[in-house]
Design goal:
Layout (H helix, E strand, L loop, with lengths): L1 H22 L7 E2 L4 H6 L5 H4 L22 E3 L2 H13 L7 E2 L5 E5 H4 L6 E9 L5 E19 L2 E15 L2
Antiparallel strand pairs: 1-3, 2-5, 4-6, 5-6, 6-7
């Protein structure tokens, strides 16, 4: 009789474990953020907003999502500048892993670890915005870090945002 209870207990644990695996989305398990397919898809400037991100809030010349503004934000100088950073970040082996788990994983990485031979990245600091949220008053700046923020949207991890950060100094 004891063996039967033990067997039933083992079966119960196995059923419980299987139920948890079926309920928790596979993307919610701890996986390095920059390697997840839905993160890579959402890292595109053209699709980020529709996926739930606000990447365009931090790129000069781009319109941020509704109700957001570039005022008081640091900005990449262009979509191409951001894309160059993303591609290097995605493929760098100098960057410590950031696993997508928990509420909002966030990474600040030294520019030199993303762009070999570069200590600071040029960008803009926005001091005012137009009604559509685009920057109307900006000053050139150089920053020593770049931020990457992630979020679970439904059952998919996305890149929510990326922007120059850390120690930033105006260069005009």
């Amino acid at each position: 009789m004891v063996e039967v209870k033990g067997s039933l207990r083992s079966v119960g644990r196995a059923v419980l474990a299987a139920a948890v695996v079926c309920v928790v989305p596979i993307q919610a398990l701890a996986v390095e953020c920059r390697t997840i397919g839905t993160v890579k898809e959402s890292a595109s400037v053209d699709t980020n907003t529709s996926k739930g991100g606000h990447l365009t809030q931090h790129i000069a010349g781009e319109t941020p999502p509704p109700r957001l503004s570039q005022a008081d934000k640091t900005l990449f100088t262009s979509p191409e500048a951001y894309l160059g950073v993303w591609r290097n970040y995605e493929s760098s082996n100098k960057i410590p892993n950031l696993n997508c788990s928990g509420p909002n994983p966030y990474h600040e990485i030294a520019v030199r670890d993303i762009l070999p031979g570069v200590d600071r990245i040029g960008g803009f600091k926005c001091y005012g915005a137009n009604p559509d949220g685009t920057c109307s008053n900006q000053q050139r700046t150089k920053c020593d870090k770049i931020a990457f923020g992630y979020r679970l949207e439904g059952s998919n991890w996305i890149l929510v945002t990326s922007y120059p950060t850390g120690v930033c100094t105006n260069t005009n």
